[in-house]
Design goal:
Elements: E1 13-19, H1 23-34, E2 39-42, E3 54-57, E4 60-63, H2 80-87, E5 94-96, E6 99-105, E7 109-114, H3 117-127, H4 132-150, H5 160-169, H6 171-180, H7 185-192, H8 196-210, H9 219-231, E8 235-237, H10 242-254, E9 258-260, E10 265-271, E11 274-280, E12 285-293, H11 297-301, H12 318-326, E13 327-329, E14 332-341, E15 352-356, E16 368-372, E17 386-395, H13 405-423, E18 434-440, H14 442-449, E19 458-460, E20 480-482, H15 493-511
Length: 520
Amino acid sequence: MNPYKNTGEQEMLWDAVIIGSGIGGLVTATQLAAKGAHVIVLERYTIPGGSSGAFQRNGYTFDVGASMIFGFGDQGYTNLLTRALAAVGEKCETIPDPSQLAYHLPKGLEITVDRDYEQFIKNLIARFPHESKGIRSFYDICWQVFRCLDAMPLLSIEDPSYLTKVFFKAPLACLGLARWLPINVGDVARRYIKDPELLKFIDIECFCWSVMPADSTPMINAGMVFSDRHAGGINYPRGGVGVIAQKLVKGLEANQGQVRYKARVTKIIIENNKARGVELASGERILARKIISNATRWDTFGGEGSKNPLVNPEKIPSTEVKWRNNYKPSPSFISLHLGVDSNAIPRDSHCHHLILDSWEDMETEQGVAFVSIPTLLDSSLAPSNQHILHAFAPSSLQEWANLTPASYAEKKKSDADKLIKKIERIFPGLSTSIKHKEIGTPRSHRRFLGRHQGSYGPIPAKRLPGLLPMKFNTTKIKNLFCVGDSCFPGQGLNAVAFSGFACAHRIGAELGINEWSLPD
C-alpha cells in the first residue's frame, strides 16, 4: 500500500502508526514491516526503547531500566528478542551471565540463582533440606508450564486461525497451557511447600520481576521466568540494553519503516467508533489504517488520576473502565546510576543482586533494593578501571508530589544516601568510591518515559484468577490496538516482546499480510 495515498486531506496514510518506541511498540512495528506493511513509530523523547533505552554520561553508558535480560536464547519459541531482531535482519551479540540473581534476604538467607538448574536446586535444598521434595515439585511444575510455552509459536491468541493451527501443531501444549491460565503462583507453591520462610522466598522470586508476591503473580509468567533463566539463560547485550531498541529501529528502517522523535501524540482521532489517526502536539495529523498505543492503558484511556488521555473521555469503552477496576498502577522507582572505582566491586561478584532487610518491607516504600553491575559482563560501558552500578527501589509518585524545588532536591539526596547505605551491606565502602551519580525519581520516569505515575506497569487491584482478566491487544474501538505491559501477558522485557508479536499478528490478519504457515 502506498503511504502517500491522497486521502482528501493531503495527509499521509500509513498501514500502522505506533505511539511510543518501547520494546512492545518496536516489536509490533518490525513484525509488521517485515511482512510488508508501511509503519511509522512516533516517539515523544529523543531516543528509542523507553525503559529499555540507554543514555551516555561522561564515558558511561547507562541502562535506563533493568539490566537482567531474558529472551536471547537460541532454541524453542521463548527466545523472543532473538526472533524479533532476526525478522528484520538484525542480531545482538550477547554475553551470558553465570547467574540470574544473588538474593540477600532477612536473617542471613543468601541464595544465588545459578544458570545451571540443578546447581540452583541444590543450593536451595541445602538451605531447606526438609523441603527437598517440595522444592523439586514446585520448580518442576514451572518447567511444565515453560515447555508448553516453548513448544508453540507465541502469536495472537485472539486470532482463531492461529489457534487452530497451533492446536494441531502442539495439542498437548495448548491444553497444558490452558490449564494454568487461571492459576497464581502462591496456590501452586503452597500445594508442595510448607516452610513459611521458603514460601517467602517464592514471594520474593516473583516480586523481583513482577513487583507482586506469589499470590498475585500468574503461573504462566512464573513458568516462563523461573525456567527460561536456566534454558535460554540471562544474556546481556554487548554495548548495553539500549542496543536492542537501536537494532530494532535499524531493522525497521531497512524495511521502509520510520521512527520520528520529539513527536508527542496528544490525541487519537476517532470517528464513528473507528480510530483513523493521531494528532501531535504540533497540531499535525497522521492518518493510518491501524493505530497502536504503546502508552500505558491509563495514558491511553484515562483513570487513576490520568490527565489528558489519548482517547476522548466521552469515547472510552466501558470495558476499559472495568479493566481499571481489576488493575492498578504499580509503584515507580527511585533509581541510582553510579560510576564507581573498580576496586569497590569484588571481581568475583555477581552481576545482579536483590537486598531485603525484613520480609514485612517487601511491598513497602523503597523496601526492596535491586542492584546491577553490567560492567562485570561488559567493561566497555565505563571508563577504564571503573564500574557502573545501577540500583533502584520501588517508590510511589505520591511520595514525591507537592514538594518545593528545594524539598524535592533534599529528598532526592536523602533517599539516594539511604539506598547507597543499604547497598553497602554487600559492597562496604561504596560511598567513598563514587565518581559519578545520577538520581532518578518517579517524577523523572513520568517525565522522560511518558508513563502514567512513572509506573512499572499494572498490578492486580484485588485477587484475580491468573492471567484470565488481562486484556489482549484489540480494543472495543475499531482499528485501535494496545501493546506493552498493559496487555497480556504483562510486565517484563520478554513479556512485552510477546505482546508485540501478538499485536502484529492480529493486525496482520486484518490486513491480510500474514503468512499461512506457522513460524519454524
